[in-house]
Amino acid sequence: ASVTALCVHAHQPHIFAGGTRVGQIVLWDLRAGTSPVARSPLSANCHIQPIVGLEMLGTQHAHSLLSCSRDGTLCTWNLSQLSEPLEAVSLRPGEASLPGGGLGGVGLVVSPT
Predict the structure, then answer these.
(1) What does the alpha-carbon distance between residue 58 and residue 32 come to, in Å, rounded to a whole number?
(2) Which pTM was predicted?
(3) Less packed terminus of the chain by CB within 10 Å, N or C?
(4) What is the rounded distance in angstroms from the CA atom of residue 6 to the CA atom of residue 25?
(5) Would the pLDDT of 3 be above 90?
(6) Maximum alpha-carbon separation in the chain
(7) In this predicted model, what pLDDT tens digit does every residue of 38-92 receive, in sequence order?
(8) Contacts of 89 by beta carbon, 8 Å cutoff, 6+ apart
């Protein structure tokens, strides 16, 4: 699947995370070559539409990945365990009453303060 969002680890610039058009998280470590070292499963537990924003937060040794999707879900991931998100939050208040499936994300920006 094509990559729709990309971010670089601030403290370990050889680590990249990508979000795909099908809602999957892909992790690369350039020290291991050009193939991904980890992928999240295709699952309804988190994103089911394109990921539009990714941000890595934390320090050199403790970090999390935030992802936002067109499906209106914000997920928090542990980079060492992409089998499922640590947390998934719906950004769609009253989603059952919104026509067309509610609101989806269009980007993600996190302030360092």
Answers:
(1) 23
(2) 0.79
(3) C
(4) 10
(5) yes
(6) 48
(7) 999 998 788 999 999 999 988 777 789 999 999 889 999 998 999 999 999 888 7
(8) 73, 74, 75
